[in-house]
Records
---
Amino acid sequence: MWELLWFSIVANMSITGMNLSLMLNSVGFYQISKLSMIPVVCVMEWMLHSKRYSREVKTSVVVVVLGVGVCTVTDVKVNAKGFLCACVAVLSTSLQQITIGSLQKKYSIGSFELLSKTAPIQALSLLILGPFVDYYLTGRFITNYQMSSGAIFFILLSCSLAVFCNVSQYLCIGRFSAVSFQVLGHMKTVCVLTLGWLLFDSAMTFKNIMGMILAVVGMVIYSWAVEVEKQSNTKTAPHSKNSMTEEEIQLLKDGVESVLVKDVELLGESKG
């Protein structure tokens, strides 16, 4: 129960921090803070779970971050409140994603089961605290807002999309890792830019194209690096297992021989 409460607090801090960061900072600095999540997740996994990454994985992560940064980061304006909110958002989001994977592995539960246990606590706490946070930021309660059919439709649409987003997050982290989810998540940026150009005639500059190509190349390298790392782990695992078995066999042999020697000595003494 305490772990669920802890996770809900961290998740709510992540949601609040990301929204406040977007509200208080420029879009460029918001994108930089999102890009910083990959190295932060790597460092936190190393600190919390002693997880180490190969050189290929580190290189691919750098390529992805550079690619997404080139095609998204424009103006960068920083202020004290926005910087603080961005730091809270990055740390809490990284910790939340790491906790998702560790809870699933610790209790051997699936993504939907974990989501069904954490979502009610998150929803209840946000329903209680959300209006007061809104009042602190805007000076008005949500009840003062005039609801319309269009607003209700988009609220329901946003909630539905959020459900799918959370499900995909839990599935991806449970199946792979928090770093893989972050790398895969940046594919969303590439899709947004591409669909904006195709559907809404948004400007597509040479800088955007080069950044997207670099990001996709980084994702391909990351997939290859993770696969190579898995294969190397599977090759070393049987070897270590066999060596341990040989040691155990040798210990058993030594033990049997010592017992036989003692039996022979006792037999000789009894005859004497």
---
Amino acid sequence: MCDGGVEGGSADVADDDESCPATTVGHRSIGDHTPLSLAVLDARARMAGADGESGVAAVRASREASDVEHWERRRHGRHVRLWVVRLEVGAAARNRIEAEFRLTRYVRRPVHRIGDVPVLRRTGVPEPDPTRPEGHRAAYPLAALVCHHDRAPFGELERVHVAAYVRALASARARIRGSLCDRTGEPLLAGASSSGVGDLRLGLWRVHHRVLCLAGPGEAPARARELAASVVDDAGRPAARVLDLQPDDGYVDGSGRRVHPAATLRPEAAAALWDDYDAAEADVGESSAVADVLARAAVQVWKTFADDARSLFR
């Protein structure tokens, strides 16, 4: 008999167990009746039913079974679920164009253990943030005031914002490491939309991210907090908060069979999820791990910006 997975994971079926071949549904015990366990078994049942057939349905069943089996091999018996984290990130900006850059391009994007992985993130459109109290102070790089008229792609203004964010990531890492005392990075400017700074008015903006990650039993809140902690303001302080955290155990199709979440992901997304979890499994929630993420993010942000700039002007 093949025992299924427990709550929080999919079916624990050994790849080398001849008593439970991949194309056999087998006996379902009480432990098998979890959404992910049923999804694995149903994918194998669909593949077995389509064996020797051709057509769109057979191709779909084969592809789904392949995705699920690859997922199960990477899972390797661990009780791990896919989670969807909704984050809100805020920043001060002069206008919508600057808000888009400061909230969606290069800077202030959630970072996984393996770095910035766009395929694991869906980002919304920046919007004015009406929730901040009057007089709220937000960090903004003073150097940007000097070149705020610059509109050139990869020009001085964009370089200032990216450089300020790299310094902010370094400051955040230093705080976690305990090597930063009273320094606060760039000076703070009044960020309420009703307040002016010289001839420059700053408004408060926000954007929402939908981020995917894997987590074992009890690990999901810590993994969500890690993702939020990877985003900072220009003073190196946290700039993101977790709005929602939900598991994704797939869905039930029109025929009543459960579809595994692996069948809804692009192959590169599934691979990145497992690479990320493999890197996080041993120290989920540890502050030292967050510090390492911030350090890698600082390098990656500047390198990505510089590489993109060079490619544009070749």
